[in-house]
Amino acid sequence: MTTYLDHAASSPPRPVARAALDAGLASANASAGHLAGQQARAAVETAREQVATALRCSPHDVVFTSGGTEADNLAIKGVAWAAQRRTGRIPHLITTAVEHPAVLEAVRWLVTRGEATATVVAPAPDGRVEVDAVLDAVCEDTVLASVMTANNELGAVNDVAAMARALREREVALHTDAVQAVGTLDVDVQGWGIAALAISAHKFGGPQGVGVAVLRRGLAVEPLSHGGGQDRGVRSGTFAAALDAACGAALEEAVRDREALRRRCRSLSDRLAAELISLDGVHRNGPTDPAHRLASIVHLSLDGVDPDRLALELDRAGLAASGGAACGSGASAASPVLQATGVSGTPLRLSLGWTSTAADVDRALDVLTTVIPRLRAGAGTRPGVAARP
Ligand SMILES: Cc1ncc(COP(=O)(O)O)c(C=O)c1O
Predict the structure, then answer these.
(1) Residue 286 Cβ contacting ligand 1 at under 6 Å
(2) CB of 205 closer than 6 A to ligand 1?
(3) DSSP 192-241
(4) What percent of the chain has pLDDT over 70?
(5) Is the minimum distance from the CB of 200 to ligand 1 under 6 angstroms?
(6) pLDDT tens-digit profile of 202-259?
(7) Could you give the domains of the chain?
(8) Ligand 1: which atom is nearest the Cα of residue 8?
(9) Catalytic annotation on 327?
(10) What is the reported pTM?
């Protein structure tokens, strides 16, 4: 039996999401005028309402996408292109060195093609991004800053509400990748005053392959793809009624149960971290203040442990965890987040979610307190490498 502590990579689907997916699979085309089409459209619109209520924005702001990656790309490229069309000038973007590749690579792609200039802000050593560091990067042509709500490796939480407030005074819109945050943090689009946001259903118990871009009224966005003009003309393509319905149902339940989940994750992750850092050569990374880190993530560095052997041993013992971020191509490469924050040693991310129990933590502790000393007693070490499946 596997002990699953890799919810930051993907969380198992909730029964409500499975039921909505199942019910929606036989949907007609939600743009068709007949009764079956209207029923499919009603399912999409119900999901839109569920998402809007959960994120505290208008249903009009909700655009369904294929996931977090597309939602990030749509906001970043879409806003940059719209600004260039409006002003005739090359727009300037701000982002941070700890963003997910869905943000960093979108920005890099625009810059490489001469379609934007960009400033990449360095994080503090604990992985958080300071408001002043973002403000210092603002220049005359800045149109958008993209700063994640919470980091997927270290779990560091940023004060995006303060950033949005300060940026608004300088007429700069804030986009935030809230993919990791929405499961345990109260995300408030209107209250925070953010212009755009990305979430992904498979991080909160919905299916893989669906997400949401929140694009608020007044934010000009050029589409990434062109076609039938669905979803305000911003995201063409036949509505994925079943996926959208499952995303809405999962998010509604996740938000309803969020406070209880946050408390459970906090107590489980505190116990996990406390017992593991009592071992020699095990360090916890990320912010020390619990208010500044996700309750669901424990990120550790292990001294004197070979990363490949660790991965092998954990697999053998049936513990699913991550050597770093788990959102990339599968290539082993030094994690840019850990490089940017100066974290060394072999990384190990344990991440909890809606299925996590005290028994999972007991079992993970049994495995890790046996495997880590055993590996250390064995062969030498290679420098920290983050697996990115
Ligand atoms: C912070 C963050 N943003 C974006 C993504 C990409 O989301 P998706 O897998 O839905 O494309 C992920 C994880 O995969 C993530 O952790």
Answers:
(1) no
(2) no
(3) HT-SEEEEEGGGTTS-TT-EEEEE-TT-----SS-SS-TGGGTS-S---H
(4) 94
(5) yes
(6) 999 999 999 999 999 999 999 999 999 999 999 999 999 999 999 999 999 999 999 9
(7) 3-10+258-387 (3.90.1150.10), 15-256 (3.40.640.10)
(8) 16
(9) yes
(10) 0.94
